[in-house]
Amino acid sequence: MIAAQTLAIARNTFREAVRDRVLYNLVAFAVILIASALLFGEISIGVEKTILINIGLSSISVFGLLIAIFLGIGLVHKEIDKRSLYSLLSKPIHRWQFVVGKFLGLNLTLLVNTLFMSMGLWGALYYLTRSFQPEDVYIWTAIYFILLELFLVTAVCLFFSCFSTPILSAIFTFLIYVVGSAASDVRDFGTLTKNPLLESLTTAIYYLLPNFSDFSVAGVVSHGLPVGSHLILLNTAYAVCYASMLVIAAVWIFSKRDLK
Amino acid sequence: MGAVGGSSSCIRRRRHRRGPQRAGRCADPGPGRPIGHPDAVRNIGYLPENPYFYDYLTAEELLDYFSRFFPMSPQRRRQRRELVLEQAGLAEFRNVALRKFSKGMLQRIGVAQAVLHNPEIVLLDEPMSGLDPVGRRDVRNLILQLKSEGKTVFFSTHILSDAEAICDRVAILQRGKLVGVGQIAELLQRQSGFEAVIESCPAALLPRLQALASAPVLASGGHHRMELAEENVQGLLSLCATHSIRLISLNPLRFSLEDYFVELLRAGEQARGPDAAKAKAS
User: Fold this and answer.
1) Predicted confidence (pLDDT) at residue A143 exceeds the cutoff of 90
2) pTM for this structure?
3) B68 in contact with chain A, both atoms CB, cutoff 8 A
């Protein structure tokens, strides 16, 4: 019963996103951008395919991020602000089910959107090469990593959405994404300064904030190189563990929250 | 019933706030379950004040969504959905998106979702606030229908005429505290004197008339209307007989719900002392 209730919330979150016109604009824009990568390929003699895959994967990642933040920041806040939460929580459900249901629903939305955009990339690739090579399948590893990245971004967004306003949640999530994407550089910068305080601070940031840099493998797969299964396993475990911790924290905060 | 901010908001806070309850007890329909536990609300239907429902859903989709939170088979869910849509008079609007609903229709779908799981207790937070007369009548009929089905309906309101028309028992809350409760019939049985209407009373007799009255005598259209205590009725009759004043009507003055409400609130304010009165005035 508990699983069915949580899935009902997830399903409704998905339905809400699917009926949002802004989402379609973003997805359409991403598909157009992927298609336009063919034009970039025209002026890049010999590396058309590499350019197409790079631009395509980057578009999927950036637009996925935009959708995750755009939808994620309002996940909890919107329900409180519009008071729809009062009707929902008067039903026999736990508060944690609401948070987890929202999280699952948004991830389902991102999964469907990413698959849709990936089909666009796959179509553009076929249009360019007129045949698929065995190494093209590595693109799906990169897409899987983008999904893991979005899974993590959604958890960060949900965490902030439980106690902050949508605008602040968007800013916090975006900043964490930017710093987390350059986590290794931040730590290297700290080491270069030779300042023990700064060094320990940047090291703490490196370990505390989600490390998004390991999820970016577009450069590797665009050259037809495989991604090691070791990295796939590590990234999966990392994303699941980190996101779970954030969702647990979000559940704890939301359960303690006083809804007036 | 209660003054603004003193009653309905208390219901909502009671349901959704965290932390220790400051006072009072709550009968828990789920034995051994604390307030706030899902099992404790399984037998309760709730409509919040000024409800907002997901406007991208149709009426049927909303009810289907909410019905999934209760242990019902798909067939039972469909039956209940059909029944409450019918009861709320929204069957023909089942496929209309809620964003196209009027406020009255939203209140009705709100009541429908509250009774979807056939609860024994229904809590309605100001179900008629902001509705036009037709909408109020529709919601009132819905509540009466629930009452006739044997359900216990609690609803908060600032509109005393609604309470008088629908309720068996009323409770008055002041600043979240229960200050009065009783059967409507008993409360309205209390008699507080008589009301008399007389005609052609000479101006010279008005001071004598005023002496008998318990409130200022009101003159309008050649008639005088006055309220008087039971012991002064005989005096009024004698005055009329002696000076050939025509007595149009003499009726017992019943206590209205409004009188009861105001009396209790004033008593509450007085009990809180002059400091509270000053604070209120400032």
Assistant:
1) yes
2) 0.78
3) yes
